[in-house]
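Morning run. Coffee first, then this:
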Amino acid sequence: MKTLRHLTAFLFCLVLGNTLWAQDYVDLLKFRYESTPLNGYEGVEGGNARIDEFTLDATVPVVLNDRVALITGFIGESLSSKFTPNDTNVTQVFGTTLKLGLNVQHNDRLSIQYVLLPKISSDFIEIGSDDIQLGGVVLAKYAKNDYFKWKYGLYYNGELFGAFFVPLFGFYYHRPGSPWEFDITLPLAANANYAFNQKWSAGAHFGAFVRTYNLNKPFFTEQGEYLQKNNQELYFYGRFEPVKNVLLEAGAGFTVGRRFGIYDEEDRVRFGVSAFMFGDERPEPANPNIKDGMIFSLRAVYRYPL
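And here it is:
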């Protein structure tokens, strides 16, 4: 009974926090697997690389009062491929991010999220100070009405190439009774979904990512190196809800401007803003790039309605 009371109180807090979230739901747990079939290397005869990525994202919001909610959770990521044509073994890198912050309802229309995002990002062969990154995001949501919210903010992370900033702008739209749902946060992500009925829907997703991973086992030098991932991807998906609040997705699409570059640990930029790098005098990456290609995605979500 004690456990049941705690669970009931937690769910009550989620319902109470309806005004703190742009959507009509909270995705408490998300799992994603993405695979790119064998693609060649640019400027290299022969050789190919398969890319596999896993992501587990958990969020635990706890409402402190009618204006403030605590945001906690974590993100676990893994990326594996042969990043050089001469690599006989698959190299795997990982990212582990903690989420800790607040969602503050400043008035009836404006809420702002303040979230710290400390991260360990490397091949995990050893864990040291070079593997640790510190980031954060501030995201404001302004409700124009019950079904349309503006979003704007700023993301920051201390990447291995230097300070990296991403201004954010977008909106969320879902009119009651409409089959359409739009969730846009440019330039990082955009999602459009059309519901055929309560079980089936389909949509399109765009994502853009920049990640850096410390390589404790370098490829080309005796000193340290890091792997920088730049990726833009667009895919189309079908979604099925086999049981209430559990979503299963399968999708296919393609990458645009994908880049996995290996740099010396001393190769840095002054700072980066979205797609622009200022003071970037780094030499070309030591490894040839993996060509763009098709991607295939599987995704599972536990979604709690508010």
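The chain has one domain: 2-305. Good start to the day.
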